[in-house]
Structures are given as structure tokens and as C-alpha cells.
Amino acid sequence: MADILPESEALSRAVELLREGAAIAIPTETVYGLAADATNGEAVARIYETKGRPQFNPLIAHVADIAMAERIADFNPLARRLADAFWPGPLTLVLPHRAGSGIHPLVTAGLDTIALRCPRGFGARVIAALDRPVAAPSANSSGRISGTTAQAVAADLGARIPLIVDGGPTPVGLESTIVKVSDDGIALLRPGGIAAEEIERVAGLPLARGAKGVQAPGMLASHYAPSAHMRLNVTQVEPGEALLAFGPRRVAGAEKAVALRNLSESGDLREAATNLFSHLLALDSSGAATIAVEPVPLEGLGEAINDRLARAAAPRDS
């Protein structure tokens, strides 16, 4: 089983393992990440192996600062403005990949672009100490619920990795927003921890939507899935179902749910985002065959929450 160390004691051990080519779990402000040296092909392959992740699904390369990012990708003025406004933080920029950056091709999955993010806290410290970018998708088995605590990561991946750095519950609780920046404008590839409206305000441009194909992490149709089936936007709870609620009022039959978790009693979307994955995991552990989900508004962070719920509910092979 993985060692679990508090982040205050883990930096030197984490750097040592990353230099050796290991994949380890680290806290970020979004969710826990499964981190490996992005310049080391064997280390990146270990991420795919650990997660059981399809190799056509690219990874985000995490950087310590904009200077590191600019050695990896081409920043036009708009991309630089977004980075200045939102980094460090939960925004991933998909940009043209610079030749000779040292990033292993497995990270980009054959694309001529690269997804970059500058995290806060321990993630930034470990990357700076390593002095190399780190590939770090969410620390969970591919397609399953993302871990927002060290304990959730341990339950899923603890037997497959040597170290989990415990930074407590992640404050955002939802993966980063992914935006592709080109000379033609900006496109929202995945809603996430920063609302689209905030990005549009800084950019001075509308975000295009409806991207086709896998252009960035988290774009597979079925993703973030619990073992239980899911019903979205329900108006009543059927016998034997668990209920993922939102807000102060319940749908019909809520009192008969075999288990209930409320994303936010007050209807606060930021609180709901923080609680999403931990509540899904709790309901999935209840033994219910189906999780019924009350409607969540689409505005602000509700767009990202509904995106994750739709992917969790999508048909899947297993």
C-alpha cells in the first residue's frame, strides 16, 4: 500500500520518487492528481498503466510558473492575459506545442497542442523543486470518480502507487476549466473550476462551445462514472434509489431514498462543486443500483457540474 504523508513532510520524498520515474498522488486545489515527470516516457506510461487510461486521451502538463510554460508552448497575447489573470489556479490552457520542449509524446497523445496548468500549493512546490513539468491527471481509475481526499485516493489507487501526499480535502473539488486558445479565438473544451463567464470577462471574447473529438483531457463521453447507474434531472425518486440532492427542496419520494447526500442545502454552486465527487462516491458506496440526481442550475459553476454528471451518466462498456 502507498505511504500517506502530510504535505508538510512530503516534499523531498515526492521529488525523489518523481525523479525515479514513479507516479504519485499529490493534492491540488482542484482534485488530487496522479503525478509523474512529463519528460520521462516510462513515468508517463506508468500514469496510463495505473489509471487504466486510454492512450488517445491526452494529459495536462503542470508547470511551476509562466516562465516554465513558455518553454513548452507558444503564448499569444490572449493566452498570456488569461494566464496572468488565472494562474496559479484551476484554468488549463490548450496551446500550440513548441518543438524541442522535452515533453514526452505520450503526454500530448499525438496532438500538436499541449494542455498546460499552473497549480497552487504543494503542486507548484513539487514542480519547482523537480524543475520539470509534471503530468497529473486526476488520481483515480480511468473514468471513475475523481478523488478529493487522500483517503479516497488510497481506496482506489493505494495498492498501485508508492506515495499519497495528504493535503486535506481539495478546496475547489472539481477539475480545471480547459480552454483552447488560438489566433481564431477561444473555445471551451471542458467546463470546470472557473466559470466560463469569468474567462469571457478577462478575454473580452465569447467562448466558443461544441468542440469535436478528443482535443484535451476529460472529453471522453463516459467519464467520472460511479458503479451505479445514474438518472439526471429527476422529478421523483424510485424505490431502491439513492438521491443526490441540490438546494433546500426535495423531489417527490426523497424520503424513501436508500441514501441521500445534498450538494448544497443553500443552493450554493461553489459548495456543490466542492462536494460533487465525494458525495457521488458516498452514494455509490450505499449499494444502490441507481443514483437519482436532482436538477442543478446551468449558470456559473453549474455548467461544469452538469457536464460531470452527464459524463458520469453516459453509457459505458462496463
TrEMBL record:
Enumerate the InterPro entries for this protein: DHBP_synth_RibB-like_a/b_dom, Sua5-like_dom, Sua5/YwlC_C, Sua5_C, T(6)A37_SUA5, TC-AMP_synthase_SUA5
- The UniProt record lists the EC number as 2.7.7.87
- Catalyzed reaction equations: L-threonine + hydrogencarbonate + ATP = L-threonylcarbamoyladenylate + diphosphate + H2O
Q: Which residue numbers delimit the YrdC-like domain?
A: 8-194
Q: Which Gene3D superfamilies match?
A: DHBP synthase, Threonylcarbamoyl-AMP synthase, C-terminal domain
Its predominant location is cytoplasm
Task: Recall the GO molecular function terms of this protein's record.
Answer: L-threonylcarbamoyladenylate synthase
Q: Which Pfam families match?
A: Sua5_C, Sua5_yciO_yrdC
Q: Which keywords fit this entry according to its UniProt record? A: ATP-binding, Cytoplasm, Nucleotide-binding, Nucleotidyltransferase, Transferase, tRNA processing
Q: Where in the cell is it found?
A: Cytoplasm
Quote the SUPFAM superfamilies the UniProt record gives: YrdC/RibB
The answer to whether the entry has keyword Cytoplasm is yes
> What is the annotated role of this protein in its UniProt record?
Required for the formation of a threonylcarbamoyl group on adenosine at position 37 (t(6)A37) in tRNAs that read codons beginning with adenine.
Family from the record:
Belongs to the SUA5 family.
Q: Give the protein's recorded name.
A: Threonylcarbamoyl-AMP synthase
